[in-house]
Amino acid sequence: MNFQFPKGFFWGSATSAHQVEGGNINDWSAWEKANAGRLALQSEKKSGRLPVWPEIKDRAQNSQNYISGKTCDHYNRFREDFDIAKSLNQNAHRFSIEWSRIEPEEGKFSEKEISHYREVVKALRERGIEPFITLWHWTIPLWFRDKGGWFNKNAPDYFARYVRIVASVFPEVKFWITLNETNVYAGKGYWEGIRPPQSKSLFRYLVVNRHLSRAHIAAYKIIKTANPEACVGITHHIIYFTRFMNKLKNYFWNHLFFSSIRDCQDFIGLNYYHSDRDTAEHVKFKNWPFDPEGFYFILKDFAGRYEKPIYVIENGVWDEDERRSHFIAEHIGAMAKAMGEGADVRGYFYWSLLDNFEWDNGFCPRFGLVEMDYKTMERKIRTSARDYAKICRDNRI
Ligand code: BGC
Q1: What pTM was computed for the model?
Q2: What secondary structure, in 3-state letters, does the chain show?
Q3: Which candidate in 6, 101, 314, 332 could, as Cys together with 113 as Cys, close a disulfide (CB 3.0–4.6 Å)?
């Protein structure tokens, strides 16, 4: 493959507040405390058959593994982390603003936390890194949880009130992701009922989806009013389906939400990790079918269907580092192929900059370009990060 990416292509990595900042007080931090013991006890049943089990067993069976706590202490070390991103030739960074910090009590906005995120954006800009702000990456303030969270009929209005504040603080920020993966959020929280709020019900699942869609539309309008030049969208978890009822699954999982906000999005944000088919290369740890060809098909499909710029907002793997380098090169290669055939892709973000807190899997999966030592908070740049940095530097694969 020899492909030159267009000038100004965005190369970056992604994080989310709850997974890296540390010290958050929200629905997840409360849920972790209540469920850590159970998750540790159930870990063998869940992961005992993975080839990696002997390596992760001790960690997985320790309840502390499921408490996010300080995670990477990125809240205090973001400058250091952005120095690393810059040294890796990244020119964009996707992060999330934590709603529970900005509005810890209903209707009361924290000046201190607003200033914190001002500093975050400033630190990125000083390093020549374009900020991509996510407004909601799954966690919610406790007061909102107590009102029923996204099931509350006024949920879109509560979200809009928070967005109005944030949009007014950053009128110059160009890229906005309102919501992260509503399909995974509603799927795990309301369809399967295994993550907060563990409220398994088809009815609630449908209502929550509707509220999320309305919340996006409200946020879209608010941000565009604050800055008509802004590019606003969502990012969605996309699977390349090939098996039983693949067309139906493709519609419900990949496209339904995008269709519901069709006129209110300036770009298509895709998080792609895997397909549903057996591929020659399975990742060792999670057994997610590693499928760059599926990624190519997805990009072609989305490019033709929506005719909007595409940003790959997440793509990553939990595996040995050599395989991470391989995964990145293969997926960027697939993306280049799709672009060569006309797909208008404008940016690629690896998930994740740092080893982070992986929700109900705790600290077991390690996706980072940068390895974390959680005891010393030392950051160690992995070889895959340097391999990816060469692609970013050359803007070519
Ligand atoms: C989520 C991230 C998560 C990643 C890896 C994505 O679905 O947006 O929060 O860490 O997958 O599991």
Answers
A1: 0.98
A2: CCCECCCCCEEEEECCHHHHCCCCCCHHHHHHHHHHHHHHHHHHHHHCCCCCHHHHHHHHCCHHHHCCCCCCCHHHHHHHHHHHHHHCCCCEEEEECCHHHHCCECCECCHHHHHHHHHHHHHHHHCCCEEEEEEECCCCCHHHHHCCHHHCCCHHHHHHHHHHHHHHHCCCCCEEEEEECHHHHHHHHHHCCCCCCCCCCHHHHHHHHHHHHHHHHHHHHHHHHHCCCCEEEEEEEEEECCCCCHHHHHHHHHHHHHHHCCCCCCCEEEEEEEECCCCCCECCCCCCECCHHHHHHHHHHHHHHHCCCEEEEECCCCCCHHHHHHHHHHHHHHHHHHHHCCCCEEEEEEECCECCCCHHHCCCCCCCCEEEECCCCEEEECHHHHHHHHHHHHCEC
A3: 101
